[in-house]
Amino acid sequence: MYSSRISGLGMYVPENVVTNNDLSKIMDTNDEWIQERTGIKERRHIKKGDGNSTAIMGVKAAKIAIERAGVDKDDIEMIVFATLSPDYYFPGAGVQVQDLLDMPTVPAIDVRNQCSGFVYALSIADQYIKTGMYKNVLVIGSENHSGGLDMTTRGRSVSVIFGDGAGAAVVSRSEDESSILSTHMHSEGKHAKELALIGPSTGHWVPQIIEESATASDDDITYYPYMNGQFVFKNAVTRFSEVIMEGLQANNLQTSDIDMLIPHQANLRIAQFIQKKFKLSGDQVFNNIQKYGNTTAASIPIALTEAWEEGKIKKGDTVVLAAFGSGFTWASAVIKW
Q1: Which tens digits make up the pLDDT trace of 322-337?
Q2: What are the residue numbers of the active site?
Q3: Could you report how far apart the first and last alpha carbons of the chain are, in Å?
């Protein structure tokens, strides 16, 4: 069995900054209300005409990651693309990356595990490298949330949370002690509708939505995301704790061995709860939801890239990634940097 490591990281966020005060001009909300509940101060949204999309942002992040990995795009042997907001219903965004980067006809896998998507995608890349099939795999998490949010008072409980952006990692065969030590993944589908977008889907297709919306009340719109916030929060803090401990125990580590925890940027209150529970210092946990909001599959690679760029992750560090989200799905990865 070979081992794999993250050899290059990159991120991209749109230039358009949307503050809480900006949102207060289009819906009944305010900066204090949003920060108190989520910790978010601002987020990035794609702006009409800026040339961005889920795939294009992923490509921008990928170019940086590939350059930092010291490989050529033609050295990439597989693409794994995690998103809940692909440019098209089908095909997935992975094939767009292959085309936009003018890469060889490598396989492209699309992962639809929402907030856990990047860790799931990282696990896929890790396994392909460990078996010896590939040496370099490109993993991308990218989201265009703003194109599908209800930006009115009706949708504020969800819409204030999410932002757009992309993060990428090149996962390569490790030649030294740096490696992805283990990954751990779970799901519990009975709670699928507690955090979901029901339509459009093959069970609730576009003509049906148009017909229903003509007679439905303003509150009966299923083509915007729905979240049972308190229920999701309670499950998140439980599953975050479990999957982090699972990763540590699998590698005979203690919470004190964590040099850097990168949690999915779902809600600053969740991250603070986990930090307090595990008795971690501020230097052991990295959060940037304040600047970017929840970018779902992109949140961990964006945070991981920023933490690395700021020198907060160094060679030899034990880095833990953890995520929880729609599905419900949750996952963790333990990495020796």
Answers
A1: 999 999 999 999 999 9
A2: 115, 264, 294
A3: 19
